[in-house]
């Protein structure tokens, strides 16, 4: 089909073709063609027309941009899930610490060394969980530029090129405990 005829397909139909192509993970044009329904006039574009639209309307660039956004949204969801998990771990650890402490008060040190161990382990777990929750929250709140700068600083530091402490919004993040200490 000559190029000037391909323009006779509506913009809406061209966008529908793009959507089908993108949501089917960018198949080849013959595979896409097999998935297309006719337009409002009963026509289906030829493969050469689809190839032309892919180039003319920058389908690959649009899809790359959309993939980046999907990746960002997925990362945000994963961070939120991880933050909820860390918060839950901290709550459980706090509950265990309170119960162990109460047992120590009620029964005393001599009767249960496991209560002492539970107390110290739960305190450590609560510190780690709360610290990780704070650190993840701080990293998640960074804009793209600040996140890139922080990543570069961490990479330079890891490779021995950097010097000094890593800072997120003025807070040191050498480990989970220091992130927690900055919030206290």
Describe the structure.
The chain is mainly α and 184 residues long. It has 2 domains: 55 residues; 121 residues, no CATH class. The chain is 73% helix and 2% strand. It contains 8 helices and 2 strands; from the N terminus they run H-H-H-H-H-H-H-E-E-H. It has a two-stranded antiparallel ribbon. Helix 5 runs antiparallel to helix 6 and helix 6 packs across helix 8. It is elongated and about 85 Å long. The N terminus and C terminus are likely disordered.
How is this fold's topology laid out?
Layout: H1 3-6, H2 11-23, H3 29-35, H4 47-56, H5 59-107, H6 113-140, H7 144-158, E1 167-168, E2 171-172, H8 176-183
Antiparallel strand pairs: 1-2
Distance between the termini: 69 Å
Mean of pLDDT: 78
How many strand units?
2
**Globular, elongated, flat, extended or rod-shaped: what is the shape?**
elongated
Order of helices and strands: HHHHHHHEEH
Estimate nothing, just give the exact number of structural domains: 2
Task: Give the fraction of residues assigned to helices.
Answer: over 70%
Spans of at least 5 consecutive residues whose pLDDT stays below 50 are 1-6, 164-184
How many strands, what sense, and barrel or not for the largest sheet? 2 strands, antiparallel
The amount of beta strand, in percent, is under 5%
Strand order of the largest sheet: 1-2
Q: How many H/I helical runs?
A: 8
The rounded Rg comes to: 28 Å
Name the structural class: mainly alpha
